[in-house]
Design a protein that fits this description.
1 helix; about 100 residues; three-stranded antiparallel β-sheet
């Protein structure tokens, strides 16, 4: 998997290398490096969230012959609520936050 760094971080690294070497090039010439030639990639930070699970017990239901419980799931990032089996979702369908356990 690729890793992305900021152009500013590269500039700081080159400046630090020049300071450490007291102006010496240490076998390479930093003046020939064009930071603007490093390709930039548009990335967005990954939003992370988790499902807040609430369970309501409606008591005994005669038509099904057992206690009826309903589970609801709420996204901790955007507040989206669903009654489906949300634990199977890897992300929120509304805000696209990645679900963590």
């Amino acid at each position: 998997m690729d890793e992305y760094i900021s152009r500013k971080a590269v500039e700081e690294m080159i400046e630090d290398a020049q300071i450490i070497s007291d102006g010496e090039n240490c076998g390479y010439c930093t003046e020939d490096i064009e930071i603007s030639s490093i390709p930039a990639v548009n990335v967005i930070p990954v939003k992370r969230a988790h499902w807040i699970i609430s369970e309501t017990d409606y008591g005994f239901c005669e038509s099904i012959g057992k206690n009826y419980k309903e589970r609801k799931y709420k996204c901790s990032a955007c507040g989206y609520e669903t009654g489906t089996q949300a634990e199977k979702f890897i992300c929120c369908p509304i805000c696209t936050a990645m679900m963590e356990e």
